[in-house]
Design brief:
heterodimer, A: mainly alpha, two-stranded antiparallel sheet, 4% strand, B: mainly alpha, Four Helix Bundle (Hemerythrin (Met), subunit A), 6 helices, 0% strand
């Protein structure tokens, strides 16, 4: 065999190996706490609160189409195509009834489905992976306590090659955002549960989050604000802590204009349901951002 | 009370100045909406106990009622987004295709204004809070179906 042919074979082999590597299912190790009981009422109640703070229902509910909360079916548009949220009620056939606690942790902590394939970042896993194990399991217990709804998954409407899950691994490798320090309760509510950065942090052309510009808001090319910033210098400088607390409770801005669009859902399903102490911690954290 | 009176005068002056500055129907109604927002803020502060209930709140409650009552007149035919020369309006065409539904929301706001006036008159913070909720629902209940979201 000539050197040339050998080179071609090697390159082809490397290509196959790379594709196989991408398609190879992955099951990162997770360890469910030994004392976790999915039917523990206290855990379920706490899970309901955490699930609200994490705003899961905003995406997993086709409210306008008359759907059931958590049964999915909502269309979530992105520059890359439309995602249709799946059913996360515990229905065995169409929901997540067959998922084990480990399956759920693998999704929340590592972004992998039970099939071993990666999720798309439309599921804000880059934020949710900061959720504590305890809280993640409480969410699981809460979801498992819901009435199962039989509603088949419609599947995402993405163009090839974006539709291929393995392509996600390349994307992750390129853009995996740096993790954020969430020891402060307010930071935890903002970055882990509230995933505020999913909308309020600017992204690059390929949809990767700009980790060095956390919560600085999104503008289009002409400089028009699409999503306002949440730091003092990019938006909230003129808001008092009180005004911010009011806004996150009732949706009225300091000038008493009503909130609109996606943020209305964040408030309705999320921040308005926080305890006063948690909302105060969230507000204090946002007000501390320069 | 002195402070309240002073602030009330300032609010009235600000409102009359803005009424002079505004020209076309769109600018006028946007200014009226902004004034209503300022009035609601004044009422919300009092409801939370951050300020006294005084003349300022009385004026603010009347502003909400007055705006509610004048909304139908502030949206004459021919001032929609498709009409020439109307500039930047976020009013939706549904206002005119569903005029009944639209004016029902304006009436709801006017009634909330009555509740606000009564609560302020009674100096009752709890009633003021409830009336504010009622008014707030009227704002959102109209903005959602009849106002184009910011793009």
């Amino acid at each position: 065999m000539s050197v040339f042919k050998t080179a071609i074979v090697l390159v082809a082999l490397a290509g196959f190996a790379f594709v196989a590597f991408l398609f190879w299912p992955r099951f990162p190790t997770v360890a469910v706490d030994a004392d976790f009981r999915v039917t523990d009422r206290a855990v379920i109640a706490r899970g309901g609160y955490i699930t609200a703070a994490a705003g899961c229902v905003s995406c997993h509910w086709d409210k306008e189409g008359g759907g059931t909360p958590f049964a999915g079916g909502r269309r979530i548009a992105s520059p890359f195509g439309d995602f249709i949220s799946p059913n996360i009620t515990p229905d065995q056939a169409t929901g997540i009834g067959a998922w084990t606690p480990s399956d759920f942790l693998r999704l929340m902590q590592h972004g992998y489905l039970p099939s071993g394939q990666p999720t798309f970042p439309s599921f804000p896993w880059g934020h949710y992976r900061h959720i504590s194990q305890n809280d993640a399991l409480a969410i699981y217990a809460y979801l498992m306590s819901l009435a199962p709804v039989s509603q088949a998954q419609r599947g995402n409407e993405l163009p090839f090659p974006l539709s291929a899950r393995p392509a996600q691994l390349v994307w992750r490798w390129l853009f995996m955002p740096a993790s954020v320090d969430v020891t402060d309760r307010g930071a935890y509510l903002v970055h882990a549960l509230g995933h505020c950065g999913a909308c309020h942090t600017p992204r690059n052309a390929l949809g990767g989050r700009q980790s060095d510009r956390l919560l600085e808001g999104v503008t289009d090319q002409s400089g028009k604000v699409l999503v306002p910033g949440l730091t003092a210098s990019t938006g909230l400088g003129n808001w008092s802590a009180d005004e911010l607390d009011d806004f996150l409770t009732d949706g009225f801005k300091p000038n008493y204009d009503t909130v609109e669009g996606e943020m209305a859902l964040v408030i309705e399903h999320g921040t308005s349901r926080l305890t006063a102490a948690d909302r105060a911690a969230l507000v204090a954290y946002l007000k501390s951002l320069p | 009370m002195r402070k309240g009176l002073f602030a009330g005068l300032a609010l009235m002056m600000a409102m009359s100045v803005s009424a002079v500055q505004a020209e076309g129907p769109v600018e006028m109604r946007i200014q009226a909406m902004k004034d209503t927002g300022a009035a609601m803020r004044v009422l919300a502060k009092a409801a939370k106990g951050q300020t006294e209930i005084s003349l300022l709140q009385e004026l603010a409650a009347k502003t909400v009622k007055k705006t509610g009552a004048s909304i139908p007149a502030m949206f004459p035919k021919g001032t929609g987004p498709d009409d020439a020369m109307m500039g930047d309006t976020r009013a939706k065409t549904e206002i005119w295709s569903d005029w009944k539904g639209f004016t029902a929301q304006a009436t709801a706001m006017e009634q909330a204004g009555d509740a606000l006036i009564a609560a302020v008159g009674a100096g009752d913070r709890a009633a003021l809070g409830a009336a504010l909720d009622q008014a707030g629902k009227a704002c959102g209940g109209c903005h959602k179906p009849y106002r184009t979201p910011k793009e």
